[in-house]
Design goal:
This protein has 151 residues and is of the alpha+beta class. Helices cover 33% and strands 19% of the residues.
Length: 151
C-alpha cells in the first residue's frame, strides 16, 4: 500500500505484487528494490486477516531467474520509524545519506552493494537506537557490484 492507500479501496489504491514482479524482472541490468514500510521484512496480514506472505514475494523477486536485490527497512516484527525532522523514515534517511557518499569507498568513490548494505544496517541502528533492523535479500549467485560513484 502506498502512503495514500485506502484499505476500503485496495484494488484502486494499492499495487498488486505481480505488477512489481513483472516490471522489475523485465528490466534489463541489475535491479534494486527498496521497501520502506513497517513489517517490510516478513509476513503481514491484510484487513481481513488473510496473511500476505511478503517473504514469498521477496524470495520470488530475488530468485536467480529474476535477480532483483531487495532492501527492506525493518524485520517483520518491527515498525519502520519516522521523524518529522527527517521528513521521512530512518531507512530512507540512511539510504539518501549512503547514496550521497557516506557509504562510499574512500579510494575510488564507488558505492558497492555490500558497502550500502553495511552502511544501512549501522546507520538505521544508530538513528533508531537499535529499534529497527533493515534487511537485504539477494540471490545466492548475486556478486557484489558497484551501484553508484560519488566524487
Amino acid at each position: 500500500m502506498p502512503t495514500d492507500g485506502n484499505l476500503d479501496a485496495i484494488k484502486s489504491s494499492g499495487v498488486i505484487h505481480t505488477a512489481f514482479k513483472s516490471t522489475l524482472s523485465g528490466m534489463p541490468g541489475k535491479v534494486l528494490l527498496f521497501l520502506d514500510t513497517c513489517h517490510s521484512g516478513n509476513v503481514m496480514g491484510d484487513r481481513r486477516g488473510v496473511p500476505v506472505d511478503v517473504d514469498e514475494i521477496v524470495n520470488d523477486l530475488v530468485s536467480a531467474e529474476n535477480g532483483v536485490v531487495v532492501f527492506t527497512s525493518s524485520t517483520g516484527r518491527q515498525y519502520s520509524l519516522e521523524n518529522e525532522g527527517w521528513n521521512n523514515g530512518a531507512f530512507t534517511k540512511a539510504l539518501v545519506e549512503g547514496l550521497s557518499g557516506q557509504a562510499k569507498n574512500i579510494q575510488d568513490g564507488s558505492i558497492t552493494l555490500s558497502q550500502l548494505d553495511h552502511y544501512l544496517a549501522k546507520r538505521v541502528k544508530e538513528l533508531t537506537k537499535g529499534e529497527q533492523t533493515p534487511i537485504s535479500v539477494k540471490s545466492k549467485i548475486t556478486i557484489d557490484f558497484p551501484i553508484a560513484l560519488v566524487k
